[in-house]
Design a protein that fits this description.
elongated; 9 helices; Arc Repressor Mutant, subunit A; 2 domains; alpha/beta; 9-stranded mixed β-sheet; two-stranded antiparallel ribbon; D-Maltodextrin-Binding Protein, domain 2
Length: about 280
């Protein structure tokens, strides 16, 4: 009799690979660590090969484990599509979604509210962080998809929306401070990189007075009148002033918003949410 690959066993293998340990995989799939260990053992008995290599920092897949993982993703994707299509109960499950702070207030209520109203059995977990930090979480499979910022026109797929980067301050009086004080996001963020690059091209003296991925802290610092910041236009608060060319500040590039995934073949519920984002995100 041919061996049968149980769906639950495959989900366990995927969870162990994504979390890097049996203990972290257990709560994700609603089982104890001992049960996860037993399920991996059952898979290894079925395959006749070890699937995991245990080390001081957790577990990694063996060569055979990697081969099985590729099949597992395909099998689980087809299985979930069939269940959704045939049972007719609509989408269900959970989605781990990342969104930059500067887009959260503008877009999240509309995007999530509309989707959940159509699919009430779907639970969406949201992580807000800068684009570089979201990209790290995608690589670690800590989230499944995210809205991320890229330089407009520099991505392999068309952006969903173009966003202008703008200089903001409490007032133009901040420009009189020398060297020019800046409040920026993480050093590898596009606002941080292009603000500094533009000022350096002008030969203008500046200092980074605040650098953090916290948008709340950044805005508080700008409201104190002690620094300029760079934000997307849609995130610029109404109580702060947008400064332009008339203030002799460098021109900043436009950003594009794209959807990024943690894997080439997302689950049906993640795919459905991504399609909803593409359709519902305001284009301007």
């Amino acid at each position: 009799m041919a061996a049968t690959l149980d769906i639950d066993l495959l989900r366990t293998l995927v969870a162990v690979n994504e979390t890097g340990s049996l203990s972290r995989a257990a709560p994700r799939i609603g089982r104890t660590q001992a049960a996860v260990s037993m399920q991996i053992k059952r898979l290894e008995d079925l395959i006749g090969q070890p699937l995991l290599t245990r080390g001081g920092r957790g577990v990694t897949l063996t060569r055979e484990g990697e081969r099985l993982l590729a099949h597992a993703h395909e099998i689980l994707s087809r299985h979930d599509e069939a269940v959704t299509d045939l049972i007719g109960r609509g989408l269900s499950g959970s989605i781990r979604f990342g969104c930059p702070d500067d887009y959260a207030a503008s877009f999240l209520p509309h995007l999530i509210g509309d989707f959940v109203s159509r699919h009430p059995k779907v639970m969406i977990e949201v992580v807000c962080a800068s684009t570089p930090r979201l990209q790290e979480r995608l690589r670690d499979h800590a989230i499944e998809l995210a809205l991320v910022s890229v330089l407009e026109g520099a991505h392999s797929e068309p952006s969903l929306r173009a966003e202008a980067l703008v200089w903001i301050a409490k007032s133009a009086a901040t420009l009189a401070i020398d060297p020019l004080p800046l409040a920026l996001s993480d050093p590898d963020g596009l606002d941080h990189i292009h603000a500094r690059r533009g000022l350096e091209r002008q030969g203008r003296a500046y200092r980074v007075a605040y650098a953090s991925g916290s948008l709340t802290g950044l805005l508080a610092f700008v409201r104190s009148g002690q620094a300029l910041a760079v934000l997307t236009r849609s995130a610029a608060p109404a109580d702060l002033q947008i400064l332009g060319r008339e203030h002799d500040l460098p021109v900043l590039p436009d950003l594009g918003i794209v959807v990024a995934f943690d894997r080439p073949r997302p689950s049906p519920v993640v795919t459905a949410f991504a399609e909803h984002i593409r359709a519902a995100l305001p284009r301007r």
